[in-house]
């Protein structure tokens, strides 16, 4: 995990990092915290980069982090990737790549395990994650475009309220 000098909540991310190095239950909790902490567009503080932590956890499970109860894909693992991907524009490509790896691993598992009955449902979870990343990116562009438009309108209206310049 890399932390910018002005990063907030470093204690929380120290916990996430420590949990990521432990067993399944701690890793599950780390992914839950990541999914719940990264809220794109609305967070004012600079958050630490947890992409290496997510990569490390998912890599240990060939990118299919499953629930212990049913053995299906844990949707929180997809949520963690989606929210981190949406946090910054430069994380978007990483997120799409990781969701692709998850989908590829789900597909590979379906070919190797005849008893993998949740394949369609698990693939749908990943595809919805991809849709959310793409839609979130588009939404962010729309919001930023509107915010820029509002700022320009405010600037124009403040300029129009100025008295006319005297002619020389």
How would you explain this protein's 3D organization?
Helices cover 66% and strands 0% of the residues. By secondary structure, the protein is mostly helical. It has one domain. It has helices spanning 10-20, 24-37, 51-60, 75-87, 92-112, 119-160. The model has no long low-confidence stretch (mean pLDDT 82). The chain contains 6 helices and no strands. The termini are far apart.
Q: Any idea what the shape is?
A: flat
Rounded mean pLDDT score: 82
**Number of β-strand runs:** 0
| Radius of gyration (Å) | 21 Å
Compressed to H and E, one letter per element, the order equals HHHHHH
The description of the largest β-sheet is:
none
Estimate percent helicity. Answer: 55-70%
Structural class label: mainly alpha
- Number of separate domains: 1
Please indicate the percent range of residues in DSSP E strands (runs of 2 or more): under 5%
* N-to-C span: 61 Å
Low-confidence stretches: none
What is the helix tally? 6
Keywords:
168 residues; mainly alpha
Summed up, what is this model?
The chain has 168 residues and is an all-alpha fold. Helices cover 66% and strands 0% of the residues. It is flat, with a radius of gyration of 21 Å.
How do the helices and strands line up, and which of them pair or pack?
Blueprint: H1 10-20, H2 24-37, H3 51-60, H4 75-87, H5 92-112, H6 119-160
């Amino acid at each position: 995990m890399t932390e910018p000098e002005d990063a907030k909540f470093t204690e929380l991310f120290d916990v996430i990092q420590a949990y990521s190095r432990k067993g399944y239950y701690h890793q599950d909790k780390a992914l839950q915290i990541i999914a719940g902490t990264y809220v794109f567009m609305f967070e004012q503080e600079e958050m630490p980069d947890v992409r290496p932590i997510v990569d490390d956890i998912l890599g240990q499970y060939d990118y299919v982090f499953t629930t212990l109860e049913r053995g299906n894909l844990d949707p929180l693992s997809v949520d963690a990737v989606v929210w981190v991907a949406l946090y910054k524009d430069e994380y978007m490509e990483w997120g799409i790549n990781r969701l692709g790896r998850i989908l590829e691993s789900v597909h590979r598992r379906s070919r190797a395990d005849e008893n993998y009955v949740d394949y369609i449902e698990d693939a749908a979870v990943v595809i919805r994650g991809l849709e959310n990343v793409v839609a979130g990116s588009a939404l962010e562009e729309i919001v930023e475009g509107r915010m820029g438009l509002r700022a320009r309108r405010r600037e124009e209206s403040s300029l129009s309220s100025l008295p006319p310049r005297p002619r020389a």
